[in-house]
Write a structure and sequence with these properties.
alpha+beta, two-stranded antiparallel sheet
């Protein structure tokens, strides 16, 4: 899957959950930004049990 395809898939999925994926154009391409709520971090970030 290309980067463009991945961003489109993620943005469509987030739109279904009414979450906005922020995007802006930069000199080197597009920059995306997504804010996760504290209660979602456990689902998105890997856990480290050292």
């Amino acid at each position: 899957m290309s980067l463009t395809g991945f961003v489109l898939a993620v943005s469509q999925t987030l739109k279904e959950f009414e979450i906005e994926l922020l995007k802006r154009k930069t000199n080197s391409g597009m920059q995306t930004y997504l804010t996760l709520h504290e209660d979602c971090e456990a689902d998105w970030l890997p856990r480290c049990d050292a």
